[in-house]
Each structure stands twice: as structure tokens, then as C-alpha cells.
Amino acid sequence: MIAVDPAAQIERVALDTSSWVDVGRGWLRGADVLFGALLGGVRWQTGRLFRYDHVVEERRLGAGWRRGEPLPHPALADVHRSLQRRYHVQFDAFSMIQYRDGSDGQAFHRDTDLRWLDDTVIAVLTLGARRPWLLRPHGRRHDLSEDRGATHDFAPGSGDLIVMGGRCQADWQHSVAYQPGRPDIGTRISLQWRYTSRRGKPFVGTSWRAPVTYSR
Asked: How far apart are CA 131 and CA 32, in angstroms?
């Protein structure tokens, strides 16, 4: 049976005075069953990113759901409602990412496409393989050390829930570390629900269509 475990404990980790992360181990029962259903039942696609002067394919697969569309699995209706009740927000959509093996991953980033970053809630549900899931302060974005300045690794397993809140998207970066050359790394599916209250000053950045200029 796939269901949110009402007895699952959720621990809040204060990153600083205005940013936090909730961690719920074993939050979803039957996570491996849901993993198998989504792995074979979702129409996964390769996304594309603009890098400097050309487009590259992302090293991961993606899919998504929006309100009004059929859910990719009926059990996600209760998951969706449970997250909304706990965090007192409304999610109009969720996205899904498949990391096929250790060669797939995601570099450190903030979810700046939300634009308003001062007060956000981003819930991440992991299905399948356990992978490093790193956090670091935004000020360490140029750190070239082996761990790239990471201060936390929550390493979620199948059925674990991670929720970032407050100013986490403004002041922190998160990453799913690449682990190439590791044949023992299995497939991980990540589901994300994202909300912003639109408080504060919106983030302003260039679009991928904007020209890139260089100075000497």
C-alpha cells in the first residue's frame, strides 16, 4: 500500500535564522511500488539547457503534472494533499526527475525561476536509490574544493521527504552530486512541489535568449 505514514517523524534543521530544511525519513510507505509504477508509466523526456552560446541536453530525464491533468499515479493525490495541509500552501503542479545512474545529476543551484525567493516552500520526495543531496551557502558558489563547499548532505533514501523553506532559495544552493563510474548507483526518481508567497524583491536574471558578452 502506498500512503503517507502518519507516524513518520519530521525533523527541522535550521540552516540560519531565516532558512530551514525539514527531513522526514520513511515519510511515504510503499515508496518502491510507486517508484516502479512511475519508472515504467511516465513519459520521460530529456530537457535542454542554454550554456553560454549553445544548447546542451540535461544529464537527467524529466516529466511533470499540472492541476487539471490526470495524475501519473492515484496515490499522489493523497501525497499532494498531505503536503498542502502540513505547510498551509497550495501547489498547482509538481515535477518529476529521473536520475538514471551515477552519471546523471544536478550541479549546485537555486530555484531562481520562482523569482520571489524570500519565502518559499519546496518539497522533494525521493523514490529509488539513495544519492548524495547537498546544501551549501550561496556565498560558496565559487568554492573549488572536493565537496564544493557543501555543509550538509541529507542523502535521502526511498520514501524520504526533504522540504526547504524560508529564504533557503535566496541564501542556499542544493545539488544532487554526480557519481560517474559507480555501477552500483541505481536509478532515483525525485518529485518536487514548489511554492512562493511572492514576498520581497523578485530575483532578476537574464533569460537564455539574452546575448552573452565578454570583457577582457
From this structure: 15
